[in-house]
Design brief:
With about 300 residues, this protein is α/β, with parallel strands linked by helices. It has helices spanning about 5-10, 15-25, 35-40, 45-50, 110-115, 135-140, 160-170, 175-185, 205-215, 235-245, 260-265, 285-290, 295-305, and strands at about 70-80, 80-95, 95-100, 125-130, 130, 145, 220-225, 250-255, 270-275, 275-280. The strands form two sheets. The chain has a six-stranded mixed sheet, sandwiched between helices. A four-stranded antiparallel sheet has the order 2-1-4-5.
Length: about 300
């Protein structure tokens, strides 16, 4: 019995262990302890079986909820006499899906642009995967993916060509790039339209394409700025499922949105931002209990006296 296999299995959660058992056609009772499950699987699986479940158990898992992926310190961004971000400080853990919620003009996109190196802060700084945004932009670019608020695609190329162009810029091997592209196109429902030029795409289809391009390099940290704007309700729900699945890969996701239901459905924690200030922070459930409300819209209303959608 390989100790590497057993150690790899121990790093998986029970859901992942049962999934391996299902794939290997092993019938494991639901009342078994994790120790027993690991002992049985170790006799029947290979390291490749473990890797196929979407993990890297033979490496040290640095993606731990005890480690901060992003640390923001007293961040300020001013445009002449307008303060877009005003003394923002927060920490986001590795593997966390963090929702930044607020109306248009609240400072969400400016914050994302600073964290991703597009804008320089006026004051303060942020640490992204151990790198300072004021000093280490080249290193930061290697670990992040960005889905901007406005569609950023070459409209004379089709979806596949846009994705592969972006993947080539990241130096992804050809076969791996083709496999990732096929998977993402299928998951987001763009496979049939993938050979049509992007200039004929709807706003929702362009958002999906941008989302794939942001994730094709397999970044540790992804910034998704209003990723479902322009999508119909059905497409939005499908995209929510896709974004939610990224948590299973232990990626850190920063999601900006003014959709209440989006923040509630996806976020581990939510930061509510208004006029560039972080006005509240917590899990959706904690915030609703704290303010005795039924949803985050009512939380925002209680704090500010107005609705989030009033700024849209």
């Amino acid at each position: 019995m390989s100790s590497d296999i057993k150690n790899g299995l121990k790093q998986l959660d029970e859901k992942e262990l049962y999934e391996i058992a299902r794939l290997k056609k092993l019938n494991i009772p639901r009342n078994w302890s994790k120790t027993l499950i690991v002992e049985l699987l170790a006799l029947n699986v290979s390291t490749q079986d473990i890797r196929n479940i979407g993990t890297k158990p033979l490496e040290k898992r640095i993606e731990s909820r005890d480690v901060s992926a992003i640390i923001v310190k007293d961040l300020v961004k001013q445009f002449e006499d307008v303060t877009a971000v005003d003394g923002l400080s927060l920490e986001i853990k590795q593997g966390e899906l963090f929702g930044l919620l607020g109306p248009n003009g609240a400072g969400k996109t400016t914050t994302i642009n600073i964290l991703s190196g597009i804008l320089k802060p006026t004051k303060g700084t942020a640490i992204i995967a151990g790198f300072d945004v004021t000093k280490n932009l080249e290193e930061i670019k290697t670990v992040i993916g960005v889905c901007p608020q406005e569609a950023a695609v070459f409209k004379f190329l089709n979806a596949r060509e846009n994705i592969e162009l972006f993947g080539n810029l990241h130096g992804i091997p050809k076969k791996e790039l083709e496999e990732r592209t096929d998977t993402f196109l299928e998951l987001l429902g763009l496979a049939e339209a993938s050979k049509r030029m992007a200039k004929g795409y709807s706003g929702g289809m362009l958002r999906k394409l941008n989302l794939i391009m942001a994730l094709i390099s397999d970044p540790k940290i992804a910034f998704l700025d209003e990723p479902t704007v322009g999508m119909d309700p059905r497409a939005r729900r499908k995209t929510w499922e896709f974004i939610g699945s990224l948590k299973d890969q232990n990626k850190t996701i920063i999601l900006t949105t003014h959709y209440i239901e989006e923040a509630e459905a996806l976020s581990d924690r939510v930061g509510i931002i208004d006029y560039g200030k972080l006005i509240e922070l917590g899990t959706p459930q904690e915030l609703m209990e704290r303010y005795e409300t039924k949803n985050l819209e009512q939380v925002f209303l209680k704090i500010t006296g107005r609705r989030i959608l009033e700024g849209i």
